[in-house]
Design brief:
heterodimer, A: 93 residues, mainly alpha, 80% helix, B: 122 residues, 0% strand, membrane (chain B), transmembrane (chain B), transport (chain B), transmembrane helix (chain B)
């Protein structure tokens, strides 16, 4: 079981390297944001697997926290790309 | 019993690993933003859901405590993953990111031009 978890962590780390290539090279900013969203999701997987590895359940709150932060970041960046600002004022509508 | 639980955990984590690896290969190889968003939203959402299910079963069946926080995380990821990718690709279309050269039809383009003509923007 321990060896299986380590193999899984190595595979996820390799896929994070492939996503980092897209973050560095991506032609448009939207590519980078999508790749960063996927990096957040792979980070959630890493936290879950390390939780099995160290045999504690204290880190399980981090999963929900990372999911919420990744979603808020994606929404903020997409609104910035579409309109040019993130929080619109009432009189500019 | 513990062997059955380990088989269940290893099955779910392996399926999740396959989908995460497919996500990385898709973002590495696909030609433009929309196909990359397609790969990133669907397969990474399913992969992280399978891995979290495996971790949930490990803590429930091997360690013996039921953790509803992981189930809440699975539900949240299932709702927000495709929504995030949809909003991202829509905003990048409105910002003018061109699709791949081999694209056959573009239905949103006519709608977009009609909308611009009606509102008189640009």
């Amino acid at each position: 079981m321990i060896y299986f978890i380590w193999t899984a962590i190595v595979i996820i780390a390799l896929s994070m390297v492939a996503l980092l290539y897209r973050v560095v090279k991506g032609p448009t900013p939207s590519d980078r944001v999508i790749a960063l969203d996927s990096l957040g999701i792979t980070l959630i997987c890493l936290v879950a697997l390390f939780t099995i590895l160290v045999e504690t359940s204290f880190f399980l709150e981090i999963i929900l926290l990372l999911a919420i932060l990744s979603f808020i970041g994606t929404i903020a960046f997409s609104k910035f790309i579409e309109k040019g600002d993130i929080i619109t004022r009432d009189d500019s509508r | 019993m513990t062997i059955l639980a380990n088989i269940l955990v290893i099955f779910f984590i392996s399926v999740g690993l396959i989908f995460i690896a497919v996500t990385a290969i898709g973002l590495f190889r696909l030609p433009d933003l929309y196909t990359r968003a397609h790969a990133a939203s669907k397969s990474s959402t399913l992969g992280v859901m399978c891995i979290l299910l495996g971790v949930f079963f490990h803590f429930w069946l091997n360690e013996g405590h039921f953790n509803p926080g992981i189930l809440l995380g699975i539900l949240f990821l299932f709702i927000t993953g495709p929504v995030g990718a949809h909003i991202m690709s829509r905003s990048s279309y409105l910002a003018g990111v061109k699709p791949w050269k081999g694209t056959v039809r573009d239905d949103l383009k006519e709608e977009f031009e009609r909308m611009k003509k009606e509102q008189g923007i640009k």
